[in-house]
Amino acid sequence: MALWWGPRVMFVGGAVLLVVESSRGVPLSELRLALYVFGACSAVFIVRQLWVGHQRGPGGNPPRWLVRAAAFLTAAGVLVLVAPLAGFEGDALPLVGSVLLLLGLGWFVEAWRGAKPGQQRKALLWWGVALCALTAVTAISAAFLLPKAKGGLFLSLLIALGLALFVALPLGLNVLSEWGVRRLRRRSSAAGDDASVGIVGYLGIAGIVLTVLAVAYLGYLDWVLAAVLAATALVLVLAIVSNTHTDIALVLAALCMLAAAPPEHPTPQALLPAGGQRVLVAIGDSYMSGEGASSYFEGTDDGGRNECRRSPSAYAVGLATGDRRFDRVLFLACSGARTYNVIAKADARFLQVQEGRPGPKIEVQGDEPGTQIDQLASQASSFRPALVIVALGGNDAGFAILGEACIAPGDCEDQESAFTGNLPKVRGALAATFRSLRKALPADVPIVAVPYPQPLATTGRCTGVALTRTERDFIHRFVDQVDKTMSDAATEAKAGIEYLAEMKDSLKDHQLQLCQGRKSKAGINFVDIASVNGLTSQRFSPAKWIHNSLHPNERGHEAMRDTFTTWLNNHPGLLEHRAPTAQGQTTNQALPAPEPECSMTRNAGNPHCQNRIRAWELEQTRGRWPWLVPVLLALAVLWLASIAVFSLLPGRKPPHRDPASPAQAR
Q1: What pLDDT does residue 354 have?
Q2: Fewer CB atoms < 10 Å away: N or C end of the chain?
Q3: What is the CB neighbour count within 10 angstroms for residue 225?
Q4: In the prediction, which pLDDT does 597 show?
């Protein structure tokens, strides 16, 4: 009885523990512990499945309880998934429903594949072919229809594609795998001592070994993401063929890790500026807020509500807590901030003058209480600012779109004019924002504009970064242009803005740029997958998984803090609160900026650059479809090799029966 029920109960218990811990939003160390426990429980169950085989009921078929349990879990999963449509609320419902559905479908497959050898062979073949064909038709249809679909049709196509890829395809491969393993075992048994039949299995082993070596080589070359994808494909294929629930365990673990949000930290006393006499004010976007780190302050990483992602490892927090020249920090920087999220609402006309037409609507990000300068003004009477640092303009210039375009197929340099043509607009918007910031502060409070550090080294060879030399040169050149735009805007504002030019080489000076060494040691993430807090629907959204990409991590912010501290030491008079030599009180001196061919911000007169660039990305992706052929062929070969390997294992052992069956009782 223990042999039958113990490993299965351990597997389900480990899954329950992992789901509970994932739903609670526990610290990363606790979540990893739950993952290790689930991995150990899964390993026991998988080894038992390989060693003992699967349960059989009367007549050699799967026991009835297995089919009933599979039906119960599948029905429960569907009910939990549709519960929100009936008005039931709960952040964990999508995760719990998905896990129940996974377990139910996994037990159905186990029962289906556990039929007595010799039965349902043709049924397995035809069902497998039909399910795989359905997946192919759905995927091809979605590829043609999704780009033009809108509203309900778009959502329906996404649901159909998801069901095809994550339900129909795995089921089809499972039953085809069972058919293939049974067929090879039957031929091997009929051949007797004919060694030629076993050669097929040993060739399969050789193919799998070559795949493992290829994964190791990719890891050695620092192509970490490619190595992870190849290893995942190998393990998933082996799991599907083995019929041991390994594939269910892997997918379940991936769901829980994606649904699990990064740990949050309570707001420390240093971030409560009221009463402070030497307060550092940090304004700007994600490069100032600390996005790219492994954890954030409580309430600033909630998907769909507040995604400012203010991190305790941000260099502004480090300056305020580790430098005696400051006693507190007013941490207003927010990921994704553009100039119209920072400028005071009362100064919205500044941007309108720069646009030469009705300007973009001034917006508050998420559930923030106001724009960043309005928040500063509302709290200014409760503390004494010592220094204001601001990093802004990257989102206006299209940094997020740039990263997306360069990671996508094609050469992003082809879209250079869309990015560079918008920079005069960015300069005007930054100058207006700098003036608005100066108006919100006492005249003697210094303001420092902090440029963006160069993320990529100018080297001829760069392993582990999926960018061509042309794309890397373009990114390097464009970051230089954005930094110069910020410097020009600080001069144009005539508000006494200092410019910290040394920050541009911060990562370079600390040997932390991408392409300067191994990617895992860089001070900036290339592609980093992390979810968000908040609703599970937000956690499962792929759009929320790569926000940490192309942002400085903890090492990067430490280097930026060192650079800023050195610069501050070399400018000891900056904190003496001497009035700036010139201040601009109005914006009527600024001339309208030249009109770009498309705008990176919402603009009534020009098309949005995102639309143009994403249309280009789609065209480039479509043009690369022939590359899918060798990839799919390689996966097919790997799948056939796995079938050949598992055909070498002995079949199910007749003595092991379901202890609850009447036949066993007799």
Answers
A1: 47
A2: C
A3: 15
A4: 55
Contact 485, 512 (CB under 8 A): no
Residue 385 identity (one-letter amino acid): P
The CA-CA-CA angle for residues 478, 480, 486, to 5°, reads: 105
User: What's the rounded Cα separation, in Å, for the pair 269 and 275?
Assistant: 11
Q: Which long-range contacts (CB under 8 A, 24 or more apart) does 584-587 make?
A: 584/435, 584/438, 584/493, 584/494, 584/495, 585/435, 585/439, 586/435, 587/349, 587/350, 587/353, 587/354, 587/431, 587/432, 587/435
Write down the pLDDT at residue 447: 95
* The residue type at 215: V
Residue 494 pLDDT: 86
Query: Could you tell me if 427 and 492 are in contact, meaning their C-beta atoms sit under 8 angstroms apart?
Result: yes
What ranges in 494-553 are assigned the alpha helix state H? 506-509, 536-539
> CB neighbours (10 Å) of residue 576?
8
Q: Tokens 């789609």 belong to which residue? A: 618
**Which DSSP state fits 346?**
G
For residue 371, the model assigns a pLDDT of 93
Structure tokens at 14: 């480990």
Measured N-to-C along each axis, helices 469-493 and 423-439 cross at an angle, to the nearest 10 degrees, of 40
Kindly give the pairing relationship between strand 296-297 and strand 264-265. Answer: parallel
Token code pair at residue 235 = 């393990």
Residues in the chain: 666
CA 98/CA 252 separation, integer angstroms = 8
Residue 606 confidence (pLDDT): 53
Structure-token pair, residue 55: 């349960």
Please report the sign of the dihedral spanned by the C-alpha atoms of residue 565, residue 568, residue 572, residue 578: negative
Q: Where are the alpha helices (DSSP H) in 83-150?
A: 93-113, 121-145
Tokens 């059989």 found at? 56
SS3 466: coil
Distance of CA 138 to the CA centre of its chain: 26
pTM of the full structure: 0.80
Containing 76, the helix (H) or strand (E) segment is: helix 64-82
Give the Cα separation of 12 and 518 in Å (integer): 39
pLDDT at 246: 84
Question: Which amino acid is present at 623?
Answer: G
Cα dihedral 224→229→233→239 (10° resolution)? 70
Residue 303: helix, strand or coil by DSSP? strand
Q: In the 8-state DSSP scheme, what is residue 62? A: P
Residues of the chain with pLDDT under 50: 193, 350, 354-357, 359-360, 583-594, 604-605, 654-658, 662-666
The answer to whether 584 and 495 have CB atoms below 8 angstroms apart is yes
> Would you call 198 exposed, middle or buried from its count of C-beta atoms within 10 A (0-12, 13-18, 19+)?
middle
Strands 264-265 and 385-391: unpaired
